């Protein structure tokens, strides 16, 4: 059963809810990944490269701002998003034949 952190009274509650949140995060990452694949298809049709530095900066700035809005460490999430972006760009490069 979904609980907030404050509603958890045992480590079993904590662990069950962390696992639930992790499953939800993975579902969101899967949804995000579907957009990466579609972006590559659209970029191919428009002749755009996988790596668009202006967009990379924008996504990283968004990650930092979204983290701050939730009281999270912007540096940590900027670093995490930088890794996500590098992986996505490498994937798009393969799809676009840019390797």
UniProtKB/TrEMBL annotation:
<dbReference type="InterPro" id="IPR008241">
    <property type="entry name" value="Isochorismate_pyruvate-lyase"/>
</dbReference>
<dbReference type="InterPro" id="IPR036263">
    <property type="entry name" value="Chorismate_II_sf"/>
</dbReference>
<dbReference type="InterPro" id="IPR002701">
    <property type="entry name" value="CM_II_prokaryot"/>
</dbReference>
<keyword id="KW-0413">Isomerase</keyword>
<protein>
    <recommendedName>
        <fullName>chorismate mutase</fullName>
        <ecNumber>5.4.99.5</ecNumber>
    </recommendedName>
</protein>
<dbReference type="InterPro" id="IPR051331">
    <property type="entry name" value="Chorismate_mutase-related"/>
</dbReference>
<dbReference type="InterPro" id="IPR036979">
    <property type="entry name" value="CM_dom_sf"/>
</dbReference>
<dbReference type="Pfam" id="PF01817">
    <property type="entry name" value="CM_2"/>
</dbReference>
<feature type="domain" description="Chorismate mutase">
    <location>
        <begin position="5"/>
        <end position="96"/>
    </location>
</feature>
């Amino acid at each position: 059963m979904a609980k907030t952190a404050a509603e958890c009274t045992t480590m079993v509650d904590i662990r069950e809810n962390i696992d639930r949140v992790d499953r939800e995060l993975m579902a969101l990452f899967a949804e995000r990944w579907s957009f990466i694949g579609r972006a590559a298809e659209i970029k191919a049709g428009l002749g755009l490269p996988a790596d668009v530095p202006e967009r990379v900066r924008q996504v990283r700035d968004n990650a930092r701002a979204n983290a701050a809005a939730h009281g999270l460490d912007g540096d940590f999430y900027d670093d995490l998003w930088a890794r996500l972006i590098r992986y996505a760009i490498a994937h798009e490069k393969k799809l676009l034949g840019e390797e």
